[in-house]
Amino acid sequence: MKNIHKKVPWTKIARPNQLMPEGDWNIWLLLAGRGFGKTRAAAEAIRQLVLSGKYKRIALIANTIQEAKQVMVEGASGLLSISEESEKLTFLTSKRLLKWENGAIATIYGAENYEQLRGPQFDAAWIDEFAKFQYPRETFEQLSFGLRLGEHPRTILTTTPRPLQFIKDLMKRDDVVTVRGTSFENLENLSPTFLRQLEYLKGTRLESQEIYAEIVEENQNTLWAWSDIENCYCTPPHFLQNIVIGVDPALTSGENSDETGIIVAGMDGSNKAYVLDDLSINAEPKVWASKVAEAYKKYSARLVVVEGNAGGELLVNLLKSADNSMKIKTTYARISKTARAEPIVILYQKHRIFHARCFHKLEMQMATYTPKDRSPDRLDAMVWAMTELFQLSDNSEAPAIFAM
Fold this sequence. Notes:
Layout: H1 10-13, E1 27-32, H2 38-51, E2 57-62, H3 65-73, H4 79-82, E3 90-92, E4 97-99, E5 105-110, E6 124-128, H5 136-146, E7 154-159, H6 165-171, E8 176-181, H7 192-199, H8 205-211, H9 226-230, E9 242-248, E10 261-267, E11 273-278, H10 285-298, E12 303-307, H11 313-322, E13 328-331, H12 337-349, E14 353-355, H13 360-368, H14 377-389
Parallel strand pairs: 1-7, 1-8, 2-5, 2-6, 6-7, 9-12, 11-14, 12-13
Antiparallel strand pairs: 3-4, 4-5, 9-10, 10-11
């Protein structure tokens, strides 16, 4: 098979999160979206281990033997494709064996018959698309018993994540290095057809899972159902007569600080509202105040609605210092966050609120927030904006707005 990668060393073209981690790890868990380059990253890591001369017996495990052959061995980014001719790598198809000139051997297995891992010994393994296995825990445990050769057996586990408890258990282990990545990190190497397909996933569970590599849980306690979000996309009319900016402020900045939620929303002539922009940011107060001022001018907003529980007049003065012309309304939470959000949830269900495009981080907060959670910033800012647009009272359910 022609080597399509040999002209450029992998270390020259790989992104940092595609390179095998340094340090004393036993398992490299690479959770990444479709098209990220998981296969190439793992194949190059296996090649690196083999060429070091320290790893001689490798297990290559996919959902089926056929998938292992087609992706891990013979695929465009598989081991045969990335290896140099000088390495004299050969594939004995009938025996399911890869052999290197230095004596290293890799054997392919299908997880559907994970019992085949009982008996053989290995010093390294690569498991691909682990989350799709029918018996992921059993496959991994059977492999673990066989990883008993060499000074430091290692496992590379590549997968698009799913909400499997075993994956979450692995992520908590001290000997596991978890690396995350999204499909969008590899845009320059993805076909236009694939990129067009991504457009159809916007706002769905599949986008979060397959593109952003997030572990998306089904939770009956969340206020927003996924279907409420998946069906809320609509291009707003050119003219919106009422645009406001909702702000959920953070008075500190830093790695562990909350973001300041900044959501721009507008209403059309038929009393349908649209989320137009999500400008939320983790920054010091002067910076986010300037961002609000820029959005106020850009969208010709009527009003900035800012939660004042933590700042009051201080927040008004801060925003006025960024742009004294802004009209600012300070609102105070007098009922629970859940009670404030519930009327907005109903408006989504009634198809009265839409998103002008995908706002992934906001939508993930909406889809995962439960009444027991700490209230997220983007969601809070959106609720304040919509409360103002629909003229809801903070201590009233204002039922009249739900009549169609």
